[in-house]
Amino acid sequence: MGKNGSGKSTFAKVTGGSVVFKGENLLEMEPEDRSLAGLFLSFQSPVEIPRVSNSDFLQMAYNARRRKLGLPELDPLQFYGYIIPKLEMVNIKADFLNRNANEGFSGAELAILDEIDSGLDVDALKDVSKAVNALMTPTNSVLMITHYRRFLEFIKPTYIHIMDEGRISKTGDISIANILEKEGYKAMSTT
Predict the structure, then answer these.
(1) What pLDDT is attached to residue 133?
(2) Planar angle of CA 93, 95, 100, nearest 5 degrees
(3) Strand, helix or coil at 171?
(4) Taking a C-beta distance cutoff of 8 angstroms, is the pair 123, 129 a contact?
(5) What domain of life does the native source organism fall in (predicted)?
(6) pLDDT at residue 56, as a whole number
(7) How many CB atoms within 10 Å of residue 23?
(8) What is the dihedral of CA 85, 87, 93, 94, to 10 degrees?
(9) Is 138 exposed, middle or buried (0-12, 13-18, 19+ CB in 10 A)?
């Protein structure tokens, strides 16, 4: 968390230094290799891809990961059987699979989610929260950038970090978000 211009989104787009994940520097890898390693970066406003359905896009990405792991690829029917329960988990209708990739979008092992709560109504916020909570397991990590404490009512973070001028200035638990809600970021410099 952090006020506008504090460096939160820039942090998600690190281009210098090193970012080590499972012993490999992610910054030395091509984006598709990062994906195969288990890193997913969700963009706040992804580019729409005409004439490529979500189903085709997701199946290609999923099968690329399976190939990397030495597993057999899923054919379209097998993939459909795999993906439908995932859609149901987050309350997305099956016709989503027929839409163009990223059409109408707003807002793995390590997920960096940059303001995925932006522009969501209360019901969508609950659905997205359910999906994020499902990502959080003992073997997965989620780094989530948000401005809103409301989102944290549905997602229980392990830590909250406050960014200020490109650095983490404070780390704590959910109580930090409650202080922010009542007193704003000025309270972070005095506590």
Answers:
(1) 83
(2) 120
(3) strand
(4) no
(5) Eukaryota
(6) 94
(7) 5
(8) -60
(9) exposed
Spatial separation of the C-alpha atoms in residues 103 and 133, rounded to whole Å: 24
The one-letter code for the residue type at 159 is Y
Per DSSP, 86 falls in state: H
Q: Which two three-digit tokens encode residue 11?
A: 């942090």
Task: Check residue 80 and give its pLDDT.
Answer: 94
pLDDT at 108: 46
Contact assessment for residue 134 and residue 127, using Cβ atoms and an 8 Å cutoff:
no
Q: Residues with Cβ < 8 Å from 13, sequence gap 6 or more?
A: none
Task: Write down how long the chain is.
Answer: 191
DSSP state letters, 27-46: GGS-HHHHHHHTEEEE-SSP
> Of 173, 51, 135, nearest to 101 (Cα)?
51
61: phi then psi, degrees, rounded to nearest 5: -65, -45
Residue recorded with tokens 């989503």: 96
CB atoms within 10 A of CB 144: 22
